[in-house]
Amino acid sequence: MFIFNSSIGKKFIQAVSGAFLVIFLLLHATINFFSVIDSFTGKYGIAAADADLFTKGDGLFKLGCDFMSTPIISIMVPVLALGFFVHILYGIWLTIQNLRARGGYKRYEVSSKAAADSWSAKNMLVLGIIILGFICYHLTHFWAKMQLPEMFGIGTFENNPYLLLNATFGKWWLLLLYLCWFGALFLHLTHGFWSMFQTVGWNGQTWFKRVKVIGVIVAAIIVLMFATTAVNAFVQVNCLG
What we know:
By secondary structure, this protein is an all-alpha fold. It has a single domain (2-238), classed as 3 helical TM bundles of succinate and fumarate reductases. The chain has helices at residues 2-5, 7-41, 60-68, 71-102, 119-122, 124-139, 147-152, 161-169, 172-199, 205-238. α2 packs antiparallel against α3 (60-68), α8 crosses α10 (205-238) and α9 (172-199) packs antiparallel against α10 (205-238).
């Protein structure tokens, strides 16, 4: 098929799946950041010991997790997550194919105005592998203890998401690992964002500069929300607990 065999088709798949990645991360980061808001409203850690959704008095983060359990979101999130994994795995596969075909480390996209403007642009494969590996590790901390038992009945369900935040980010070395991961995610997003729009034709001199700036802003917002969530949980456990 054209979309799988041509250079343009392959880039289009990466662009579309990359859009899924940005949407998924924005949603995920926003829900997580609710825990930071809870720490200022006095509701950090408050979650009713019941299986009902949207229990009155729950912290905003717990309500956000309940929102993620509603039917429409339960359908949407796996689709977004699938696009996320397709983007990373397909990108790794494309890069390996080009390494074999060209005999050197070259990205699969055609030459562009920013093909070599940054370290991240030259090392998307490395960043993708780091991000994918840490996602798998991350799933054992949260998804395996909330969505997996809820959706498939496997394992023990944890109804209080604050406990999972504390158990993970309360350890300084895990916090440091996650912060490094967030850094890799930022580099990947800043390059991937403008590359996605370039694929759909927004690569004129004027739009190219604007999209690059917007990409940095979007990546910074996502990563700062994740990092603030992690640091806040560490403070809650080690300084305020």
